Amino acid sequence: MGSFEELVAEGAAVPLEGWDFSWFEGRATEERPPWGYAAQIAARLARVGSALDLQTGGGEVTASAPVKPPLMAATESWPPNALVASRNLPLVVQASDEGPLPFRDDTFGLVISRHPVVTPWHEVARVLKPGGTYFSQQIGAGTNRELTDFMMGPQPVGDARSTERARADAEAAGLEVLQLEPVELRVAFFDVGAVVHFLRKVLWTVPGFTVERYRDRLLDMHEHIQEHGEFVSTSTRFLIEARKP
C-alpha cells in the first residue's frame, strides 16, 4: 500500500474514457443487482429488429451481447466516450443527454440505457415503435450518500432519481410501466486512490470534485481506511421497463 500522496496521484492519473471499471479490481467492490442487466439486455437485443442504446458510455455493455439487431444505434454526449463507443458499436451518434434524439418517430423496437444521467422520457416515447419497450438500469436517489456526506457534509436527497419520479415521468410521456424494482447495494473502497478515481469518474457523487479542493477530506478518508480497512457506502439502483402502447 502506498503513501497518501502516492495513492492520490495514482487515482488522479487513471484515464476516464469509457465505462470500464476493471481498474478497481482489488481496490473497491460493489455488490451487483440481482436482475443481471447485461444478460437481460443480451436476450432482448436478440429478439428485436432495431434498438437504441442511450448514453452508452463506451458501449461496453451492449457490445458484450452476442447477437445484435440489424439496426443497432447508440448515443453518447461526451466526445472521448463517443470515440470509444464507435470502436465497439456500428452506429454511434454524439447527442445531448437531454435530447432531442436525432432519430425519426417510431424507429426502434427497444430503447435501453444503463445509468443514464437523465432520461428524456418524451423523446424515448417518440422514437419507440408502438409496442416497443424502454428497459433501463438506473441510479436511485441518495446513491453513495455516505461517500457524498463524508466529503461534503450532510446533503439533502432530492426526488429527481426516485422510483416514484421515474414512474410519474414515464407515464406522463405516455408509456406504461411494466416493472420497477429498486435495490440497495454495498460498496467498499480499500484505498483513497480508488476513492479519487471513483469521484473523478462518477461526477454526480461530489459535484465539482478536484483533488486540490478536497485534499483535507481525502486525507481524512485515507486515515479512516487505514484504521477500518475500508470505507463502506451504499449504492441504490432500480430497474425500469416501460412500453409504448
How would you explain this protein's 3D organization?
The chain has helices at residues 4-13, 37-45, 60-63, 79-88, 121-127, 145-152, 163-172, 192-201, 215-228, and strands at 28-30, 50-53, 71-76, 91-94, 108-114, 128-139, 176-189, 231-243. The chain is an alpha/beta fold and 245 residues long. Strands 1-7-8-6-5-2-3-4 form an 8-stranded mixed sheet, with helices on both faces. The longest helix has 14 residues, at 215-228. The mean pLDDT is 96. It comes from Lentzea rhizosphaerae.
What is the secondary structure topology, with strand pairs?
Elements: H1 4-13, E1 28-30, H2 37-45, E2 50-53, H3 60-63, E3 71-76, H4 79-88, E4 91-94, E5 108-114, H5 121-127, E6 128-139, H6 145-152, H7 163-172, E7 176-189, H8 192-201, H9 215-228, E8 231-243
Parallel strand pairs: 2-3, 2-5, 3-4, 5-6
Antiparallel strand pairs: 1-7, 6-8, 7-8
Protein name: SAM-dependent methyltransferase
GO biological process, one term: methylation
Organism: Lentzea rhizosphaerae
